[in-house]
Amino acid sequence: MEIKAFAPAKINLTLHVTGRRKDGYHLLDSLVVFADLGDQLTFSPGPELTIDVSGEFAEGVPTDSRNLVWKAAEGVGWTGHVELIKSLPHGAGIGGGSSDAAATLWALAGQGCDVRPDLPLSLGADVPVCLENRAIRMQGIGDRLAAVNLPHLPALLVNPNVPVPTGTVFNALASRDNPPMPELVPDFEDAEACALWLRDQRNDLQVPAMGVAREIEQVLDELNMTNRALVTRMSGSGSTCFALYPTMKDAHFAAYEIGAAHPDWWCRATKLN
Question: Can you list the domains of the chain with their CATH numbers?
Fold first, then answer.
């Protein structure tokens, strides 16, 4: 019997780098939400593990043990065929591979496979938060998660189709001991109130990522010029950037505007929650 799963894009509304452990892992304080767009996976049980990848961003995605979907399936002892429709750009700061792995664990756990408590984090720092698939405050090395209440956030995601290696961005970080977010994340009445609070927060990787890919600065400039943009920022380690808007109508209008000016960019209006 086929099993289907959805792997949504993960968006870091904030990403404060607050320290670094002796083992090299960075300590983070990040407010994470998920989009209503993402990758699609279909699992068909069988005697051996195989993966086929199709979709807009299939090129370059491994179909062997290098793929996080493979590692997740192997980790729970499942075998069979996986069809992965890759709609999210990779090297984009929106957790494509991690979300795929989390969707795999979720789907196979529903089929009786045993997901060891240590398995998600062993696959990657973003896999535990992607398993939650809701608004979360992520701290530590991705192991401390706390649900938060956020309103639905109309947004535009834009990626200039320039992959950015996460390790390169972290290596370019000037300071690794930065202030965390405030102790409490308030309850917000609407997207505008949330955006107003977010303006005082940061993504500490944004500046070093700009040094790796100058296109990020151009994307942020374009987003800032769209009508009724409330706040703009880069997600994760880049190169995807986002803007929040009061309504989905505003987000769709901005998507049309930027998409017409830059048809080679990945540009998607979405609702974050």
Answer: 3-146 (3.30.230.10), 149-272 (3.30.70.890)
